[in-house]
Write a structure and sequence with these properties.
about 90 residues, mainly alpha, 3 helices
């Protein structure tokens, strides 16, 4: 939780108690909790909306390998030959 340990949290709560007062502190905590809940809900809704919008796009994009081959074919003037894993390793014998 933001790298705040128990001693730091106690100091913050003590200062809040002194500055705000014991009567207003519960009200402040309640409103802060509601705000955090609303923020979390809005964030989740935004994530869901983005996921729903991106899903059809993912299906429309071809596989990366196919896309790479198509780009090589277009910009390099032909398909690149499949590389033999044994090619270029030592003398070749027939």
């Amino acid at each position: 939780m933001f790298g705040i340990g128990m001693p730091e949290l106690l100091v913050i709560l003590g200062l809040a108690l002194l500055l705000i007062g014991p009567k207003k502190l519960p009200q402040l905590a309640k409103s802060l909790g509601k705000t955090m809940g609303e923020l979390r809900k809005a964030t989740d809704d935004l994530k869901d909306t983005i996921s729903e919008e991106i899903e059809p796009i993912k299906d429309a994009i071809p596989d990366r390998g196919e896309l790479e081959k198509a780009l090589k074919k277009k910009f390099l003037g032909g398909e690149e030959e499949e590389k033999d894993p044994k090619a270029g390793k030592g003398p070749q014998t027939k």
